[in-house]
Design goal:
216 residues; Maf protein; alpha/beta; eight-stranded mixed beta sheet; 24% strand
């Protein structure tokens, strides 16, 4: 087992973490995300072993103070997409680490997303692609769900599921060597110029336990 463990079965988070150039092993954490007060920390604690640093994350939607997670069914996905249509919501990714000494740090990063309202036919067609399953808010901004999005503010990787600049700072704080600069790797991977990378990098360097960081 490598020094770093990712407490996740998410292909999106595995792909994003790989952009940092770190060596890691992925172990799915079987926890009830809806029941946990801190889902990211619960995932980490479920798989952490002595002598390793463990990273976990959990993404939710905040719509005017209401928490929205993953859809339970295609009908639930359609319901969620209707509730988001034509409105702005925040994507909140909670991140937690436990280092080799057992010290835990957790924080959250927020981004904003503005959704279109193209009608039920467009939403139903998107649900029919199957992409809504296992996605907070029932959409993937990096996939076909981009067609439902009018725009976003803040860290794009955070919306996908792992705020790389902040995670890079957390891993370095935990003693993990991070070969690649997060801001560069993220922009190359997604082929865009990130307008908030300086803010995100600064927040990542100054992480505080239990803090929340608006990235916009």
């Amino acid at each position: 087992m490598s020094e770093l463990v990712l407490a996740s079965a998410s292909p999106r988070r595995r792909e994003l973490l790989g952009l940092l150039g770190v060596r890691y092993a992925a172990l799915p954490a079987h926890v009830d995300e809806r029941a946990a007060s801190s889902p990211a920390l619960a995932k980490v604690e479920a798989v952490h072993r002595p002598g390793t640093t463990t990273l976990g994350a959990d993404t939710e939607i905040d719509l005017d103070g209401a928490r929205i997670g993953k859809p339970r069914s295609p009908d639930d996905a359609l319901r969620i997409l209707r509730s988001l249509a034509g409105r702005t919501h925040e994507v909140v990714t909670e991140v937690a680490t436990v280092d080799v000494r057992g010290r835990a740090v957790r924080f959250a990063v927020r981004s904003r997303v503005r959704m279109k309202d193209d009608g039920d036919a467009a939403r139903a067609a998107y649900v029919a692609t199957g992409e809504t399953a296992d996605k907070a808010g029932a959409y993937a901004i990096q996939g076909k769900g981009a067609a439902l999005v009018d725009g976003h503010d803040g860290c794009y990787a955070n919306i996908v599921g792992l705020p790389l600049c902040h995670v890079s700072g957390a891993l370095r704080r935990a003693g993990v060597v991070v070969p690649n600069r997060a801001a560069d790797a993220c922009q190359v991977h997604f082929a865009f110029a990130c307008p908030v990378w300086r803010r995100a990098e600064a927040q990542g360097r100054a992480l505080r336990d239990r803090a929340t960081y608006p990235s916009f």
